[in-house]
Amino acid sequence: MTGQGNSGIKPKHQRLVLLVIALVALVGAGLLAAWALRSQASYFYLPSEIVAEAPAPDQGVRLGGMVEAGSIQTAEDGITVNFIVGDGEARVPVSFTGIVPALFVEGSGVVAEGRMGADGTFVADNLLAKHDENYMPRELEGMSTEEVRAQVEATLE
Amino acid sequence: MIAEFGLVALWLAAALAGLQLVAGFFGMREGGEQVAALARPAALVQALLCGLSFLALIYLFATTDLSVKLVAANSHSAKPMIFKLAGTWGNHEGSMLLWITVMALAGGLIAALERRLPERTMLATLGAQGFLALGFYAFILFTSNPFERLPLPPVEGNGLNPLLQDIGQAFHPPNLYVGYVGLSVAFSFVVGALLTRQVTPEFARVMRPWVLGAWVFLTIGITAGSYWAYYELGWGGWWFWDPVENAALMPWLAATALLHSVSVLAARDALRAWTVMLGVVAFSMSMVGTFLVRSGILTSVHAFAVDPERGSFILMLLALYIGGALVLFATRAGTVAEGERFSILSREGALVVNNVALSAILGIVLLGTLYPLLTEAFDVRVSVGPPYFNPVAAIFFLPMLVVLAIGPLLRWRGDSFARIRIPVIILAAIAVVTLLAVWLLADIDLLPLLGLALAAMVAVGSVLPLRGRSLRRLPIAVWGMVIAHLGVAVALFGMAADTAFQQERLVAASVGDVIEDGPWQVELRSVKPVAGPNWTAIEADLGLTYKGAPAGEAKPQARSFWSPPTETSEVALVTRWNGQLYAALGNQAEDGRWQLRLWWKPFVTWIWYGGLLIALGGVLSIIGRVSGDLRRRVAARKIADRKADEEALAAGAGA
After folding, report:
1. Which ranges carry the Cytochrome c-type biogenesis protein CcmF C-terminal domain (chain B) (predicted)?
2. What value of ipTM does the predicted structure carry?
């Protein structure tokens, strides 16, 4: 009954062998995760940061700031919106094709998920706006630029 | 009056948890017989009082007693009754009360029914359960009192977040809590077994229904939560790797590993220390989940209020319980003797692969979930999403599926490859043929391609254990395994098919326009306002044609709730056996056209059917195990009775 699988291992070492296999797999998973996190995590940028040092066009990132008043424009196709996100220091044009969240309005905070295009326009796949009075994108909390913070707080009133 | 009654009942229940702790831990020592007798009654009365306290809160919500702060903040008199009741646990305080109530009821159930383990182990288990409960009572009573009164009752309540005003919400959190609490019971058994050095197959058999039960509820909770996010958020996705979803997934992964290793321990007396360790990990993951969701460290629709005091309290409990259990494990693991040995090519060997792979996936999900919190400490903000989770988890998930298809064919203890060569060749052929066929016919990504191939392999592999066995005489627990494994294949097929073949159309349409989406033709017939009990909405009327034949209509809405003022997108779903049409209505453009988002999602519903099959497999397994235990107990009693009768007869004959 006891098959050939046993032949190479001294039985008294079985526990140790199992432990080593488990540890190797878990440490391997941990290293793999650490490596993948460094390359795949999507970094959060403020407009001034993304203008100063733009990420590679294939790198997924998040851009957070305030939707500039009077900047939202709907394109010909009726489903693409172009607007400008600013933090008081820099302004970044953003293009988004899709249904915008209900609370996406001028003068309020937004987090855009997407990529920085080579032409300086941020192409967003997804927009996160304030959900309800208890929810707002986490990245907008305690941002370093005081002005953004003040504006965000103003929209929360 | 009712609020005060509820609060008093809660304090008394907390005191009884303290008594249970003392009676359990002192009772298990030499000469502690007198206090030991108090442990079971304490657990029973605690369950009763805690249940009454929870009923009191339900009553306050049902009658909308606005003098209670929690009701005023979360309810509204104009809300439908079912959502008033569901509102009881649709907030932080109420959900914690629900948690502790489920925990108390579970403790009462063990105290009343469980008599198989040595009494000392039971006392240690009840003591550990009291210790856990006491922490949660302290948390509720000191930081989250649900019965707090307002000095001046408001005229009307705040209402419940409309995203939560949904029938799914009524059942989703209780489900997950039963799951979390079930793992806490398993944890208490582990502590009891470690303290009294009784890591035995009997301990595994006692713990198994609790692990299985917790796992079934977590499975249902995750399945329902995924469907809720799918149709309520209006984004068309069914899994976002959101930290809150991960908070439920991690305990599920640990529980899945635990229920497999507990089976090895029960059947073969192997993997003793590993099972004990997994018991600790599984409960730790429920605590981590609670911490992530309840501390306000994450912001989402699940995080009710940001309160650092609560976060640090839960973190303290987490450190205390997990740290304590790990110290206990470290000091006692050496005394847990090595169990029975097995060859690598055996059922046990396959289950070890399952356990290691699940643990690795658990680690990957945990790291990905915590990474943004870690980097934030260094003032770097990142988010981690599908580009990380999908490929990295798949590296362990896909090989595990291969073992899932083959493992159940292996015998316990040791097997030879020659015996299973033919089924293995058949399974491999199915996977390769599916892979090649799909690869030649469709241009899809690698992960969904592998998913489809492995789904076919697992589907066939899961029913192979039925081969050559009498279906009517097959134990129910084996049916459970077959159905749960088949559910994995069904869910995987749904995920891969939807990912690979979904077709999305995003358009701005005028009334009268016809939009094509895959096999569907969708006509925008009209857009008009409608009103509900506590909302108004804009509703689109879509006329549908499937492959040229009329296929009914769909009415997606953009809804505005007025208390609290919130807008939601109510998507329209048209379900066929082979998939779902998903329609969401957006905003009106300046020129009068309406934004419409349409998805044709082939076989997407199979994801949730698969989840339900997995849960059904778990239920059958519980029924099989518990009825087996009962039969064994009845048989043992009959033998004992007969022996007693024979002795009486013999004594009578002798007289």
Report:
1. 315-625
2. 0.80
